[in-house]
Amino acid sequence: MKKKGGVRQPPEDLLFTFFNGLFFAVFTLLCIFPIYYLFINTISDNRLVQAGLVNLYPRGVHLNNYRMLLNVSELFTSALVTAARTALGTLLMVLASAFTGYLVTQREMLARKFIYRFIIITMYFNAGLLPWFLNISMLGLTNNFWGYIIPAIVQPFNIILVKTYVESIPKELEESAFIDGAGYFTVFRRIMLPLCKPILATIAVFGAVGHWNSFIDSIILMGSQPRLYTLQHRLWIYLNQASNLSRLMESGGSLTEADLAAALNGRITSLTIAMVTIIPILLVYPFMQRYFQKGIMLGAVKG
Description:
Helix content is 71%, strand content 1%. It contains 14 helices and 2 strands. The radius of gyration is 25 Å and the shape is globular.
């Protein structure tokens, strides 16, 4: 039996530790492999990729696919739209969730329980996609950048997390500030916001990933404004173009040499854009992980 911290471990504990480590090692590899597979296909010879010959390691390494993105129509504009949407949408969502979550913990707030429950019930019941679209249209948010931002500001789940976190903070901190003459906004800005950094970082990750990956609202709301398409929407368009040409080839339809090149380049471009779109999230998450874990744990102590 192996000693750990001066205590002998029984064989069954050693066996459990081994298989537990093995399980999570395999699970980690399964999570990483899709990203690795995507990456090696974007830096390998395009014809080998088209033939399905690149599986475990890159072949014919080059970076032309990433250089090719500079020539993709409207790609830079879509990237700017997505970046602006992610930054502004996440910021406003975090501020709204923080302030609302703080307010519904104040017993002096008028109709506090009704407002909180009214917000929560929207998690389970909604009118559906068509009424939502009609409502957005009447508000003038179609073909409008703010159509990405305003509907996503209030997120009930994030408000629940913030409310629960605020309730775990000792009330004496607020009471002492009120005694010193501070108002609710001052308490929120100077005391609650700094103390709520872990949970705010958690919901910021939720919001940023949601905004960065979203494209359904771009398809529905921005039909006549291609300059407002998100990066994910642009990727979806290229995927459709490549798929349509592939289906035409499989059905025996005649394709010109230009169409064949477009089918190949469309698929490779889609893979490359997919790789580019996930890089920001991969870079941001490690810096937010410590806040993310702490925020989830503390925010789930009580409901």
